[in-house]
Amino acid sequence: MLSFTKVSVPFTAFRCLSLIRNSFVGTMAASVVKKFLGTIFLLFACVLVILSLLVIKTLLSSPHKQEFAKCDPSDKDFIKLDEKRIQTLSQAISIKTVSYQQGILSFGALKEIHQLIFKAYPILHTSPLVHLETVNNYSLLYYVKGSDEALKPYMLAAHLDVVPAENLEDWDVPPFAGVIDDKYIWGRGAIDDKHSVFGILEALEFLLKRGEHPVRSFYVALGHDEEVMGTQGAREIGKLLISRGVKLQYILDEGMTIFDHCIPGVDEAFAVVGTSEKGFVSLNLTVRLPPGHSSLPPKETAVGILATAVAAIEHTPHINMFGRGPEVEMFSSLSPLVNFPVRVVLSNLWIFSPIVSRLLSHDRATNALIRTTTAVTMFQGGVKSNVVPSSAWAVVNHRIHPAQSIQEVIDYDTMIINDPRVETQVMASSTPHPVSPASDDTFGYQTIRKSIQQVFHELTVVPGVLVANTDTKWYLNLTEQIYRFTPVWNRREDIPRYHGNNERIGIKNYEQTINFYYHVMTNSNIERVEVHSHQEL
Question: What pLDDT does residue 258 have?
């Protein structure tokens, strides 16, 4: 008995400790399992919420359209494109108002196109409602007096000059013949920007001929050197208006267009109104080294050093700025026009923007919307095959995203080159433009949108950034509402016609252009736009 007791006491104690341990481990295991299941449930709930948001946002996405009275050929105020109007644009194209570089313009041709304008639109130039000023000899500024001077005026802008036509052998027709066939009016200026000049003037002549008296006053500004920075034309117009204390409700100038099958996956046509404009900076990169004979070359020549710098800039693009400009609203607004899988992505850029921005960077057209672009446009070095050159230079042109500054672009290039032997000098620059509003109650944007959807029958309209430059740089102090749009219908193959070969406009499209500007004039007569209420998540 004694020995049994001695053995059972420690054994019993061991069993108790074992039971306590097993109970504790069991409790711990149950707690871990419970926490694990709780975490899984929480993750599942989060995924479910995100999926629900994705579906709801996708289903709620719809084109921002309102029911407007459509522009129809049977309307009494429809402007039909008769032979006279076609011939007037053809004659305008045949006048070679070419701007070659700053200060080197076709001054005689500019005077000639003035005479064409005066002759083609007699009512406009004799109306007591219209006052015309010639600015700096060659630009034209019209003021049309409205009946309610309490309303801020607006301004329609375009330009008389064109770029040179090169590679004539690659043109299907002579670029300055104003050729007309059964579908198109051909020639330099057909879509940049004489169609706007004469579209505006045709609409105004029609309006005045009908005896209409605009309620809201407006200006028509026709610059004469936009293609070479507008320093003599639009800048002087801007200075004149500022000196008079003019403040505008909005400005509409050339810019973005109607795009039909231009973006992969978007099979419907849509219109983009430029609410901002890229800036630019042209940089001269120069390397200077002692010259010498090619038989005793240095380790690196000026040409080689510069080539390395240029290659570094080309191969290291500026950062992706998707989400910091109007491009996000543009692509989210396009979501109703794409098929369902892509629609889910574009409707939910709050989660998919990193993926979308990466995909956009792979296409040249869309890449220009999301970052500052780089183009090496000139390169020169050396004077003889057996001489080591004393210098080499190149020109790099950047088109700057609205979210960046000129200095940021220069600093980035300097960092990428990382070679003090490469001197950088700014040749010319223009700051990116502020982003103009595009909300439901923004008068200028909604007036333009309404006019587009009336003439082009409820075409989807979205805001965007213009990658090129316009005369609006000289009008930034006149209003916060500056928009860049011209109603040219473009398919992807038409984009290279701008400043390229075989520029043309469809005859029907020119008729639409005239009617668009007429609707802009009549739609601007109200005091404020009607706010369209629609539900959003």
Answer: 97
* Averaged pLDDT of the chain: 90
Q: Which two tokens stand for residue 372?
A: 């500052």
pLDDT of residue 249 exceeding 90: yes
Structure tokens at 428: 């010319």
* Token duo for residue 426: 């700014």
Please name every residue paired with 392 in a beta bridge, in sequence order, or none if there are none.
287, 381
CB atoms within 10 A of CB 510: 24
Paired residues of 288 in beta bridges:
391
Which are the catalytic amino acids? 161, 226
Question: Which string of b and e fits 103-140 if b means at least 16 CB within 10 Å?
Answer: eebbeebbebbbeebeebbeebbebebbeeeebbebbb
pTM of the model: 0.86
Reading phi first (left if > 0) and then psi (alpha if -120 to 50, else beta), residue 502 is in: left
Q: What is the rounded CA–CA span in Å between residue 115 and residue 393?
A: 44
Long-range contacts of 127-132 (CB under 8 A, 24+ apart): 127/208, 129/208, 129/213, 129/214, 130/204, 130/208
User: How many Å apart are CA 304 and CA 375, to the nearest integer?
Assistant: 19
Q: Going along 364-477, which residue ranges are E strands?
A: 373-381, 387-388, 391-400, 422-430, 460-466
Beta bridge partners of 253: 484
User: Which tokens in the block code for residue 234?
Assistant: 């639009």
- Asked if residue 337 lies in contact with residue 266, where contact means CB atoms within 8 angstroms, the answer is yes
End-to-end Cα distance, the chain: 83
**What does the DSSP assignment read for 160-192?**
S-B-----GGG-SS-TTS--B-SSEEESTTTTT
Close Cβ partners of 228 (under 8 Å, ≥ 6 residues apart): 99, 100, 101, 102, 104, 105, 161
Residue range 413-471, pLDDT digits in tens: 999 999 999 999 999 999 999 999 999 999 999 999 999 999 998 799 999 999 999 99
Structure token digits, residue 504: 């043309």
Smallest CA-to-CA distance from 251 within 322, 157, 345 is with 157
**What does the alpha-carbon distance between residue 190 and residue 481 come to, in Å, rounded to a whole number?**
27
What is the model's pLDDT at position 18?
61
- Strands 482-491 and 251-260 come out as parallel
Is 224 or 69 the better-scoring residue by pLDDT?
Answer: 224
Q: How far apart are alpha carbons 416 and 435 in whole angstroms?
A: 29
- Sequence-separated (6 or more) residues with CB below 8 Å from residue 408: none
β-bridge pairing 218-223 and 154-159 = parallel
Contact present, 422 and 409 (Cβ < 8 Å) = no
Cis-peptide into 471, omega within 30 deg: no
Both tokens of residue 261?
């099958």
β-pair type (130-135, 104-105): unpaired
Express each pLDDT in 252-297 by its tens digit. 999 999 999 888 788 899 999 999 999 999 999 999 999 999 999 9
